[in-house]
Amino acid sequence: MAQSRPISPIYDSYWVRPQQFLAGRYPNVWNDGSLQVKLRQLLQVGITFFADLTEERESGLEPYDKVLHEEARHLRKVVTYQRLPIQDFGVPTVKSMRQTLDALDDALARKQVIYVHCYAGIGRTGTVVGCYLVRHGLSGEAALQELADLRQGSYLENRDSPITPAQRQMVIDWPVGN
């Protein structure tokens, strides 16, 4: 029997932990005028912690943190935006990944609802989500399978995530509980 998945608030995202942890692509990747709409949708489902894995001004991406704070203020919500940069197609150091996972766990402990993203929502995002799943009890291989399952029904379902062999290996090698 197929397990039903909660509907994601925006097309290019998926729930890692329903109503607690959402993952996907950069909210303004297309610079098509949909940024405010996407941010409003994310805020309306309760996202309060935005973890941005992109590097500053990467690939000409326009920063969205000011618009995010304006939209949050308009909706009378308090949000946190934190850049936790990882080089595109790269893997972070163990120390950097641990700091990223700590930031996510700290946000969840404060009852914040997370949206973690990189540019496309596949490589770096998949690496972080995979390591997060391992930290919380899955083996690396099981985390990669869970990641594939979580992405079913999203635009990401037919893409390997993480993308590179090094990113996938980081998930496989990540120590449970680390």
Task: Describe this entry's structure for a reader.
- The chain has one domain: Protein tyrosine phosphatase superfamily (Protein-Tyrosine Phosphatase, Chain A).
- The longest helix has 16 residues, at 94-109.
- By secondary structure, the protein is an alpha/beta fold.
- It has a five-stranded mixed sheet, with helices on one face.
- The protein has helices spanning 35-44, 65-74, 94-109, 123-135, 140-150, 165-173, and strands at residues 13-17, 21-24, 49-52, 80-83, 114-117.
- The protein starts with 12 loop residues before the first strand and ends in a 5-residue tail after the last helix.
Throw out a few tags for this protein.
178 residues, Protein-Tyrosine Phosphatase, Chain A, alpha/beta
Question: What are the SSEs and their pairings?
Answer:
Elements: E1 13-17, E2 21-24, H1 35-44, E3 49-52, H2 65-74, E4 80-83, H3 94-109, E5 114-117, H4 123-135, H5 140-150, H6 165-173
